[in-house]
Structure formats: structure tokens, C-alpha cells
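quick one: zinc ion bound model?
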Amino acid sequence: MNDDHPIKIIDSFEGRSVDSYYWDGDTITCKIAEEPLVKIDNETHNYNLHFVIGFTNNGIDKHSIEIIIDSHPEFKHLVPNQIYSSTSLNNTFSPEDTSIDRHELGYKFKITVPSKSTIYISNTMWNPLTRINTYFNNLVNNSNIESLNYGTSVRNNPLMAYKLFQIRDTNKPLILITSGFHPAEGDSIATESIAESLASNSLFCADQYDFLIIPVVNPDGFQAGLNGCNANGINFFWDFQNHNLEGCPEAYYLWKLLKQFPPNIYIDFHSYSIQGVNKIFGPYVKPTILYTGLQTKKSASKLASSLQTIPGSKSQSMFAPSTLSYKITKEFNTITFAKYHLHQDMGQHGMRNMAVLVLQKILESIKPVELQNQILYPYGLLKKTIIAKSMQACFVKRYYGLTAIKKLISGKTE
Ligand SMILES: [Zn+2]
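yep, here:
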């Protein structure tokens, strides 16, 4: 591109996510950045879907450009139905008025950059890290929510939790809510709206529980504009390396925090982005055999059924022993809805309301007393019998075997 062209791409800002790019007149072709695929638990996960780019217009006239997104080979068929933008990194991105068309490389769309201005563009409802931190700092300053720094990330960013108790009252069940494992997904919108509802005491029976909220589990990923990994290329949602202090301090310190505050219920929000209408929002549930004790099995089923009454949602099962979702149940007997998948096509308000509704359903469908003898020894009083332990181990082994066979039959060679 000519150096005198008024539109320039911004080469460095928090969250920037694009690989190479080239100009041809008023058209810029941007290649989606790539990070390592996760190969774990007989599955391969590819998160190379999203971009965050920025442009400046130094000219005195507004200027339109065409952006071609060169998608990852696996995702050439996916065309988002919305592009999001913001003129500042202090806002969550909002829908941009432009139409998106298929292109041989992926898809294309036009944007107009007003004179003497900056615009940031993404295919997700991007929520910048600095903005999320400011949001929670404001909540801490204006409510009874307290911040808790539980460690530091690979790049020395503080790992921040927010708690709604001063001293943990173990007579009350603890609900842990996380988001921001996969930075590009915009799911921190969910933890923001829940924290806000809890701060304003607007939720039924919430005073009978303690809450711990972690909006950004993976701050380095937000800073570096990564789709799913930490700064060392570890996608620790799928591969929760809780004993790897060096490589994955985010998982290590979160695990340490959970040993201090073992939760009764765990909800982890994620969000579909450009995958389209085939992906339906809803909870991931795990087989009840993995819970210990009749009461906890009952509570887990009850909560799962209650969440399934949310119109339009669909629950899924996930077999992923390397995730926090599995490890937390094995270690503490925590009931998990991890993930709870939202969809950015709901819009920001839709995602905010749905997240609060999910928590409300949980609070409405169970009584704290039902979670009284749930947490496993040595963190709680419940002892796992040898029979329960071996049945759970057998279940996991059998499932590993089945998924390995399935993979062989389907001829996948990842
Ligand atoms: Zn995710």
C-alpha cells in the first residue's frame, strides 16, 4: 500500500490478533493468527477462528476499505453473521453495520473509518482486559465484593478472583463462577452481569451461598489476543496442567485457590462466536457416576434438569478427564456446569440476561442443606469409598477405550 494512503493498520495494541496482512488498493487481506491445536483425551481442538484488528484514518475524509479474512483451512466454510467494532479499547465491542460475504479465502466485508479516528474490528464480542479490570475495580469500590490476587500468570499479570464473603462461612455452600479461559469468546460478559446482580442483592436466596468469581482465568491470552492458550501455548481449559507451575501458572494457582476454597458448584461460562445456528447454547453435564454420595448425585441431576428448562437451550455431555471440570469433581466432589456455553448471536444483553438466569435456576432448584455433606475429605468430611473410587476409575478408563476405538474407526489421524 502507498505510504500516503490515509488508512493504516495498528501494529500493536492490547488484544491484537492477526497473522500477516497485505494491502491491494483499498483492500486488505488478513490471515487469522494460529496457535497450537490441543490434542488431549482422544480429541483435537482447534481455536484458530478469531481476529482483533485496528485501523487509523489520518486523512480529513472518511474512507472505506474492504477486509478479506483468510481463515484457517479447517474453517474456510464459516462466515460470521456479524462483525463487531469499537472506537476504543475501553468498551465491549458492539455490532458493526456491514454485510459479510463469502470469499475463496474465507469471507469479506467493508468498513468505513471516519476522518482522524481509530476503529477496532473483530468477529467476536471482544471484551478487552483493561476494560474488564476497570469494571471489576469499580464493583469492588462500590459494593461488598472483595478482590483476591491468587497468583501471577506467565507474563506476570495478576490472577484476580472476586469474592462475596470476607471470611468463608463453611455452613454456606460455595459457588465458583469462571470465564475467560478462551479470551476471544466474550464470555466475561456473563461473569460481569452475575457479579453485578450479586453486588446489588437482586438474586433469590443468594445470601445463603458464598460466591467466588474469576472473570479472566487467562489474562495473558487477553493481552496477546490469543484464542484459547496461555502465553506458553497451553490451552488449559482442555489441558488443565495444575501441577505445572512453570508452564501453566494460571492452572497451578487456580488449583491452589480451590484447595483453599473447595466449591460445591462450579459454572464456567464460554461462548460460541461465529459457529452459527448449529451451535446451541446450554450446559455441559457429566455422568452422575463421577459424583460421590447419593445426595450429591441427586443434587447434580436436579440442577442439570432445572438448567434444561431454559427455553432453547440444549445440554451436552463432555468426556474430558484432563479438564478442570473433571479434576474438580474428582478432588472435591464439586457439581459442575463447565462449560456453560452462551452464543454471541444472543447479543450482549441476551448473554448478560442468560448468565443471570442460569445462576437463578441453580439457586431456585436446590436448598443449601442439600449440599451440606458434599465436599470430599480432607477438604470436607465426606470420605470416598473404595468402591466409588474404583467405579469412577473404571468408568473413565472404559470411556477412554471407547473414544480411542471410535477415533480409530473414523480414521482420524490427528
Ligand atoms: Zn471456550
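Residues 181-182, 185, 270 surround zinc ion (CB under 6 Å).
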